[in-house]
Write a structure and sequence with these properties.
Layout (H helix, E strand, L loop, with lengths): L1 E5 L4 H12 L3 E6 L7 H12 L4 E5 L5 H11 L3 E4 L13 H22 L3 E7 L23 H20 L2 E7 L2 E2 L8 H11 L2 E4 L6 E2 L2 E2 H11 L13 E7 L5 E2 H12 L4 E4 L15 H7 L7 H16 L2
Parallel strand pairs: 1-2, 1-4, 2-3, 4-5, 5-6, 6-11, 7-10, 8-13
Antiparallel strand pairs: 9-12
Helix pairs in contact: 1-2, 1-7, 3-4, 4-5, 6-8, 8-10
């Protein structure tokens, strides 16, 4: 068994590759190491992975189709876990072109490689952002998701539709994972928990949008990884052997947390009160997210469990150690 993890130097990719290697799986990781956020952080994640037996890494951009196809041909991957993407709702307002390249062209290249070299299962990252301004809560995988409110969300919904068409046309088996506000050690610097922690430790005010009247289904990264690992050997089951199928799963804690409660949890973990700068709603954002994870629980017998009271201190401990503060 050899599994490809794209975006291996990223937040979720790093944790996923690490877990697979610890379970004795051969993992090939690829990443283009772009400078959307600190390359130093990405290299530090990779340094940890490179110490693990069974891990091999190549610097590669999924937009480079010939290189990607050659890699698939050489390795003969049994499963593909596609986590590489240009992330971030707010960044998509300023740099739309990179989203089209990474999230649309890049994903199409991954599908083409899977079409030709036939892994048993393609798992790919979608996002809770696809639900847009849906007012029905919790968000269910059976809900209509045709009105994204950001370009990032639109590219992730496009990924789901592309995967559906490739599974239908070419008999692929794929699982699309709608992640809900993932946090934890080695997290992304553009995410709220990272930015809030840095600001509070520096004595800077934190920006709280929509005047704090928001809630998020915060999901600890270990719960995300556990879900991926359980899904990996369990592709969706088609009705016939030659038929393909693309199935969507929500992966969230299933328990929305008010943003101001999240801030209070972080303040408690840091032992410092935050200076709060309340701002209006930002373009492309949504007020609430809440995952219905019943489909995931039914399929793999697991749903995320970690509460913010346990997860946030784990991030704070990592942050203090990594940045020596």
């Amino acid at each position: 068994m050899t599994i490809l993890v794209t975006g291996a130097a990223g937040f979720i990719g790093h944790h996923t590759a690490k877990r697979l290697c610890e379970e004795g799986v051969e993992v090939v990781g690829i990443d283009n190491l772009n400078d959307y956020y600190s390359v130093k952080l990405k290299l530090a994640r990779l340094a940890q992975l490179n110490e693990l037996p069974g891990f091999r890494f190549q610097t590669m951009d999924i937009v480079d189709k010939p290189a990607l196809m050659a890699l698939f041909k050489e390795e003969g991957f049994t499963e593909v876990i596609h986590l590489a993407a240009q992330a971030g709702v707010r960044h998509s307002l300023e740099n739309p072109d990179v989203y089209a390249q990474s999230n649309l062209v890049g994903f199409l290249n991954v599908l083409e490689a899977c079409r030709h070299y036939r892994p048993a299962h393609l798992i790919y990252a979608s996002s809770s952002s696809v639900y847009g301004a849906n007012s029905k809560l919790p968000f269910s995988v059976d809900d209509a998701v045709e009105q994204p409110v950001s370009l990032y969300a639109a590219t992730k919904r496009a990924n789901e539709l592309l995967a559906h068409s490739y599974c239908h046309l070419y008999g692929l088996k794929a699982s699309g994972l709608r992640f809900f506000t993932v946090y934890g050690p080695w997290g992304r610097p553009d995410m709220a928990l990272f930015k809030f922690t840095e600001a509070i430790l520096q004595g800077w005010p934190i920006d709280i949008y929509h005047h704090g009247q928001m809630a998020r289904d915060f999901t600890y990264v270990d719960d995300i990884v556990e879900s991926i690992v359980r899904l990996c050997p369990r592709p969706p089951v088609p009705e016939t052997e030659t038929e393909g199928v693309n199935r969507i799963f929500n992966i969230g804690r299933g328990k929305p947390v008010a943003l101001l409660d999240f801030v209070e949890c972080l303040e408690s973990a840091l032992g410092i009160k935050a200076q709060r700068n309340f701002l209006p709603m930002q373009a492309g954002d949504v007020i609430n997210t809440w995952a219905d994870v019943s489909a995931l629980a039914d399929w793999v017998g697991f749903s995320p469990q970690v509460e913010i009271e346990a997860g946030v201190p784990q991030f704070v401990n990592w942050y203090r150690h990594f940045y020596r503060v």
